[in-house]
Each structure stands twice: as C-alpha cells, then as structure tokens.
Amino acid sequence: xxxxxxxxxxxxxxxxxxxxxxxxxxxxxxxxxxxxxxxxxxxxxxxxxxxxxxxxxxxxxxxxxxxxxxxxxxxxxxxxxxxxxxxxxxxxxxxxxxxxxxxxxxxxxxxxxxxxxxxxxxxxxxxxxxxxxxxxxxxxxxxxxxxxxxxxxxxxxxxxxxxxxxxxxxxxxxxxxxxxxxxxxxxxxxxxxxxxxxxxxxxxxxxxxxxxxxxxxxxxxxxxxxxxxxxxxxxxxxxxxxxxxxxxxxxxxxxxxxxxxxxxxxxxxxxxxxxxxxxxxxxxxxxxxxxxxxxxxxxxxxxxxxxxxxxxxxxxxxxxxxxxxxxxxxxxxxxxxxxxxxxxxxxxxxxxxxxxxxxxxxxxxxxxxxxxxxxxxxxxxxxxxxxxxxxxxxxxxxxxxxxxxxxxxxxxxxxxxxxxxxxxxxxxxxxxxxxxxxxxxxxxx
Length: 445
Known about the structure:
The chain is an alpha/beta fold. It has 4 domains: 1-37, no CATH class; 87-145, Helicase, Ruva Protein, domain 3; 151-343, CATH 3.40.525.10; 348-444, no CATH class. The protein has 19 helices and 8 strands. The protein has helices spanning 50-55, 61-65, 69-74, 78-83, 88-103, 114-123, 128-145, 150-153, 159-165, 190-196, 199-225, 248-264, 279-288, 294-297, 308-314, 336-339, 347-371, 394-411, 419-444; strands at 8-13, 16-17, 35-37, 168-173, 179-184, 232-237, 269-275, 300-302. The strands form 2 sheets. A 5-stranded mixed β-sheet has the order 4-5-6-7-8. It has a 3-stranded mixed β-sheet with strand order 2-1-3. Helix 6 (114-123) packs across helix 7 (128-145), helix 17 (347-371) runs antiparallel to helix 18 (394-411) and helix 18 runs antiparallel to helix 19 (419-444). The protein is globular and about 80 Å long. It is a peripheral membrane protein. One of its GO terms (biological process) is protein transport.
C-alpha cells in the first residue's frame, strides 16, 4: 500500500528505528508530518508463516486453548504473562511520563498501568507533552461518557436484533493468539438497524465491547497463549459495498467510532484485512482513507476475492468462519458472529483473571503509600483525622487495603464463578496483611 506525502518509520523502541529506514520526507528534507510505525505492542512483529505451522502442528491454536490451566495457576509466571516483556527504553520513558503526570496530580490509580501509558506514548511517537494532552482528553471523555458506569447503567437488550442487521463480532484468535474481530459490512441493513436501536446506543455498545476487550479478552488470550496479547486482528467483509452505502447516518456512525477508537483506545489494532473489495468499494476507500491516521493505514491490507491464502497465513482454519473459507460454523450458537467464541469464555481462565486482578488491587493498596509524596497524596490515601496533611503511615495503608478487600468481597459475592479461587485469594491476602500490621504494631512499641 502506498502512502503519499508522508513517510512511516518502523521503530523498535522509544527513539530507535529499524535499520535502513529513511528519516526524511519524500523530498529528502525532514518532514514534520512523518509518522513512526511501531512494532505490535506485544513486541512480536512477524506472524508465523503457514509452513512453520505445518512443521509444528502440535502448537496450533487448538493446543493454545487447551493448555493445562491448573499448571499455569500454580506458576508464578501468570502475572508476567499478563504484563508481557518490556523494552528497556520504553520502560524508562513510561516511568518519566508517569512521574510527570503524578507530580501534576493528573494520574488516577485506575489508569496508572504500564500498558495504558505506553499506548498513548506510542500513539504520539513518545512525545510526552503530546501524549499528556491525549491522555487527559481520554480521562475527560471517560468521565463525560460515564464509561466506568456502563456495566451498571447500560444494558444492550437489542443485541440479538442488532446482530441480524449488522453482522459483527469476535470469533476465536489468530495464529499469535490475538482476538479475531469480523464485520460483514456488505450485509448491514442501516434502515433496520436504526429501527431496532439508535446510533447513540450502538456507540455505547461499541465502547462496552472495547472495555471488555481490554479488561477481559486480552488477559484471557494472554493466559491461553502463554504470551502477552494486547492487540486485535480484524477482518472487514465488504462485498457489495460502494458509495451508496456511505449515507449521512453511516458516515456519522463510522466517524464517531473511528474517533473513539483512535483517540481513546490507541494502538489496539494489529492488522486489518479488508476482503472482497470490488470496484465500488475501491472508490469509497479513497474517501474513507481521509478519516484514518497514516499509522492505521499502514496496518490495513485491501484484498479482492482471492483473499483466503492471505488470511490462512494469519489465522488457523479452525478459527476462521466457513463463510470466509474456514472450518468453523458455530451452528449451536446461531452462527460464528453470534458466538463470541474465544478463551475469554473459559470459566477457569476468567477465575484466574479475577484472582490476579484482586491481588493487583491489594498490591496497589500496599505499595501506593511508598510511591506517594506528602504534597501530592491522593485523597483516598489520606488520614482524614490528620490535620497536618501528611500521608498516612504503613498501618493505615494496611487498614485501607483490608477495607478494600471487604468491599471487593462483597461486590463479587454474586458472581457465580468466583467462589473457590477468589475466597482463597482474599483470605491469603487478609492474613498476610494482618501479619504485617501486627509486626508493625510490635515494632512501634
């Protein structure tokens, strides 16, 4: 694919580009519009070839999904799998970015994780000031859109009807273990879609799916594949699509979703295959490209009817729906795009994610006291009775952690799959914290 007027540099880490790439624009001079195309956030650039897969059939996607999870649960590497390997230069600049945000009081604990900050830095080519602006816009949007309240406040009751007139969904994983997302754009009935839902409600549904992908699908795929997964492979089926499909409501829906994905969920696309592209779509594509970031364009491959061999290089046939030439039909689920098939539906994996998430909450409560300075301490971690405004001590940190455990235990009480694993994790953490509190009490006497 050709990208005019702009160059794309392929970078291996912060401030480091691949050998042989150009550092100047097409005219030989430095171009401020130059964009850097970073390797996938999982730090794995090349997908396995089909020949490699044939040589090692035992490592197919099927075997990925039946990995002995009991053995994985006992392993101390679960957290490492979820966190993934870290580039040294990336880690340095993420730490600097985190410190800058923290000093200015702009770093909520909920979005203080390494990968969230890295996504925004990568999207702005490691320019901390530009990444800061983007990150603050992200926080403001989440508050205004009430993203964190969607699970409680928003129920997409029209889900089944919407799927009939807008066939799309997650279905399995690619050969690397990333979630596979498919849309059959040529079958969208926009008139019927606007009868069963509204654009505003559909956008809320889209956001809720993005949240599920970040918080459930990526961690589940990481545990199943035993490697860090942080991006999605997408297939858009566009047969029959042309300029006539790009009506005013369709343009609005497309631009809103694109704006949300680019601005608030950056660096989550691994590759996109647009298949069955006819002459009508190719005319439309010239207009659509104007809405897309040059970095996103570099990840898109437009194919005609002869697409199957390309898809099979990236996706195992068992994870490819039969309407695309694969082997899966999901007949017991009403079709592949209704199934939401993937490791994120495995009960045992979900239990492990819940347990790891809970331990992370506890660790954050304990370590936050060490990282906070007296002048910038968050209100949630202050001793309200301390009129001097000093940060609370270790004993208060322990009590605060125990209070959070009680709240989490109560909140998770109604979840069917949390019982054994979460109860054990909660009790272990409670005992450890009480022991620590008792030791600190003794040391102060």
